[in-house]
Amino acid sequence: MCIRDSFAFEYLRRTRQPGESFVLKDVALSAHPGDWRGPMKSYAEWCHQVWAFRAPSSLRGVVNMIAAGWGQSPLFRDGAYRTDFIQPRCDCIELMSWWEWSELGPWRTPWDQLEARLGEATYNRYRPYFVEDPVTGKTMYPINRGDYDGYNQRWGGLPAFQEAVKAYRGMGPLVTLYTDPILACDNSRCGQQWGKLWGIVQPNGEYSTNYESWNMCHEVAEYRQYVADTMRRVMQETDADGIRLDEYGHGGAACFSTLHKHTFAEPGCTEWLRCIAETTRMVPLLRSARQKTSSSSSSAKLAPPTKRSEPPVSE
Ligand SMILES: [Zn+2]
After folding, report:
1. 147 with 17, same domain?
2. Are 21 and 102 part of one and the same domain?
3. Parallel, antiparallel, or unpaired for β 92-95 and 183-184?
4. 115/182 same-domain check
5. Does one domain contain both 168 and 203?
6. Which of 93, 185, 198, 248 is deepest in the core (most CB within 10 A)?
7. Around Cβ 117, how many Cβ atoms within 10 Å?
8. Is 21 in the same domain as 133?
9. Is the dihedral of CA 111, 114, 116, 122 positive or negative?
10. CA of 244 to the centre of ligand 1 (A)
């Protein structure tokens, strides 16, 4: 038996201008003998005809992926980039807060006004991220996501970071960089320039400000391009093996902003994952597999390895 019809597996709102039509895709429903394995095999064969499959990722053999540089445990200490977080079973090290930190607290707030600005509960929750700079001793804010540049001039800037990346790779693991392009901190140029314009607006008309940042609407084509351009630049500058785009796995939010144009969703609907998929396609996330370099060829100024590795602070 075979039933021919049409239906959609997506959101249902389609506004049509007078005279415009919209027809759903043709489908055929039919019964098959046996269990699910037969149709899944047919489906897999069909997929391989339709899409070009990617080569196996260089993350394939990675079992232990360790995060370093969070909160009160920065990447730099005693005049050098640390190495103690790379232990024998570390297959991949993910570096955090490798970009230039902010001298002000969230929302560009001076430190002495921050508790009043955030309220006691949020202030206390964020205390792990008010960090003494390991060179100057000044309190800074290391989760000012948005620009992903600067590379902490106080620690030697980009040249020192490049050497650290090279040296970490020489010690064994893949070297990847943490980012979260859902967020644009108000302390970043990105947040200043585009936070209000491209930020997600909730049904009540207020901005979405999770993690004390602007939450950026990925329906905005220009923002998707900004993310792609920024990540490409970071990969080129740092020579890291890969980048993680944090928060790209969740369902996102419906955005009610009237200040920007949405690519996919009509008002009141969300096509968040389509926007995320579109962005991800534009970003070079992983460098193709390459020959590992030897640590002896690196001249990075690095701390000697120690036995103990501090656990990362999770946000
Ligand atoms: Zn939006």
Report:
1. no
2. no
3. unpaired
4. yes
5. yes
6. 93
7. 15
8. no
9. negative
10. 23
Residue 59: inside a domain: no
Do 100 and 15 fall into the same domain?
A: no
Residue 197, class by beta-carbon neighbours within 10 Å (0-12 exposed, 13-18 middle, 19+ buried)? middle
53 CA to middle of ligand 1, Å?
A: 31
User: Is the CB of residue 241 less than 8 Å from the CB of residue 57?
Assistant: no
Residue 96 lies in a domain: yes
Q: How many domains does the chain have?
A: 2
H-helix or E-strand spanning residue 98: none
Distance 224 CA to ligand 1 centre (A): 12
Report the distance separating Cα 195 and Cα 212, nearest Å: 12
Say if residue 219 is in the same domain as residue 283. yes
Q: Is the residue at 49 inside a domain? A: no
In a domain, 240, yes or no: yes
Q: Ligand 1 center to residue 208 CA distance, Å?
A: 11
User: pLDDT tens digits, the chain, 315 residues: what are they?
Assistant: 677 777 776 666 778 899 998 888 888 888 889 999 999 999 999 999 999 888 888 888 899 999 999 999 999 999 999 999 999 999 999 999 999 999 999 999 999 999 999 999 999 999 999 999 999 999 999 999 999 999 999 999 999 999 999 999 999 999 999 999 999 999 999 999 999 999 999 999 999 999 999 999 999 999 999 999 999 999 999 999 999 999 999 989 999 999 999 999 887 788 999 999 999 999 877 666 554 443 333 334 455 444 333 334 444
Ligand 1 centroid – CA 25 distance (Å):
27
Q: How far is the CA of 272 from the centre of ligand 1 (A)?
A: 10
Report helix, strand or coil for 179.
strand
The whole domain housing 246 covers 65-297
Structure tokens at 103: 């001298």
What distance in angstroms lies between residue 101's CA and the mean position of ligand 1's atoms?
Answer: 28
Same domain, 32 and 74: no
